[in-house]
Amino acid sequence: VQLQAYGGGLVQAGGFLRLSCTASGRTFSSYVMGWFRQAPGKEREFVAAITSIGNSARYATSVQGRFTISRDNADSVYLDMNVLRAEDTAVYYCAFRAAPLASDRALEYGYWGQGTLVTVSS
């Protein structure tokens, strides 16, 4: 099983990026899919997660109203990031959790992608 995250890059403050994450090796239709991020010198933090059937999502306060998480039912999750800020600069990781309800706890996610770097210039 492998999770591949991509879509990161360099963008100016106020700009937009879309991150994608695709799993291979099996399907994850019954799993929660989420995004975490880790900025230089900081701990990994929750960004967003979406339920297994895609009917509900939760967001970190810092990204609420700017980021949108979505998924297909089987193997891909996306993160649309609007109005990016310098403080959004981080390596972003996708993660899948073997449960139907979204969680903001990294320990509850058993599958992780390799990360994609997002750099927001001010």
Report on the architecture of this protein.
With 122 residues, this protein is an all-beta fold. 0% of the residues lie in helices and 49% in strands. The protein has no helices and eleven strands. It has strands spanning 2-6, 9-12, 17-24, 32-38, 45-50, 57-59, 67-71, 76-81, 90-97, 111-112, 116-121. The strands form two sheets. Strands 2, 4, 5, 6, 9, 10 and 11 form a seven-stranded mixed sheet that branches. β7 (67-71) and β8 form a beta hairpin.
Which keywords apply here?
mainly beta, 122 residues
Order of helices and strands: EEEEEEEEEEE
Instruction: Please summarize the sheet with the most strands.
Output: 7 strands, mixed
Structural class, from secondary structure content?
A: mainly beta
Number of DSSP-assigned strands? 11
Q: Determine Rg (CA atoms, Å).
A: 13 Å
| Percentage of residues in DSSP E strands | over 45%
Question: Helix tally?
Answer: 0
Task: State the helicity in percent bands.
Answer: under 10%
How far is the N terminus from the C terminus?
A: 37 Å
Mean pLDDT: 95
Unreliable sequence segments:
none
Gross geometry: globular
